[in-house]
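Archive maintenance. Older records in this collection stored only the sequence; we are now back-filling the structure field for every entry so that each record is complete. The fields below show one back-filled record exactly as it appears after the update. Entries are processed alphabetically, and Transposase IS66 central domain-containing protein is next in the queue.

ARCHIVE ENTRY
Title: Transposase IS66 central domain-containing protein
Organism field: Levilactobacillus suantsaiihabitans
Length field: 79
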Amino acid sequence: MKCITLHNDLLPNSRVIHSLGSASVIAEILHQKFEQGVPLSRQLKDWQRMGAALSETTLANWIIKSSDLMSPLIRVDSG
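Back-filled structure field:
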């Protein structure tokens, strides 16, 4: 595996641009979706029970935008 060095000035902001989702919330959604296999519809019900006014489209958009942010890391890891 190839080692890389990350510098703070190269890292994206802690949130997806133009989003209210924090890095930790988006990371939790990604973890539940891809590591735990929890569908977005079920996650959405959990978030709504906690009082978050979110839609399934919002969760899906956060996943899409996060994948865009992580694509350089994926290219380095697979290269």
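Update note: DSSP finds three helices and no strands in the chain. Confidence is low (pLDDT under 50) at residues 3-8.
Entry marked complete.
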